[in-house]
Amino acid sequence: MLVATGALSELATQTANNLGLPDLRVVSVAHPIGGVEPDEIRRRADGVVDEVLTLLTSTGPTGANR
C-alpha cells in the first residue's frame, strides 16, 4: 500500500506495474506536501485514514488502483 500525492499517483501506479506489482494499492492525497503547515497535513491524513485502514486490512482483488 502506498500513499502518494495526486500529482504522483499515476506515476506510482505506472511504476508499480512496470515492477510487476499491478495490485499495489495506491491512496492519493492532495499535492503538494512540502511547505504545507502541519495542521493541513494532519487534515489531509485524517481524510484518507479510513481508506488506508480498509486497504491494509482487506483481502482479495482491489480492482483499479486508487
For the structure shown, list the relevant keywords.
66 residues, two-stranded parallel ribbon, alpha+beta, 2 helices
Structure in words:
This protein is of the alpha+beta class and 66 residues long. It has one domain. Helix content is 50%, strand content 12%. It has a two-stranded parallel sheet with strand order 1-2. β1, α1 and β2 form a beta-alpha-beta unit. The N and C termini lie close together (10 Å). The mean pLDDT is 90.
Low-pLDDT runs of 5+ residues are: none
The largest pleated sheet is described as: 2 strands, parallel
Query: How much is the radius of gyration in Å?
Result: 13 Å
Strand order of the largest sheet: 1-2
Task: Give the helix level as a range of percent.
Answer: 40-55%
CA(first)-CA(last) distance: 10 Å
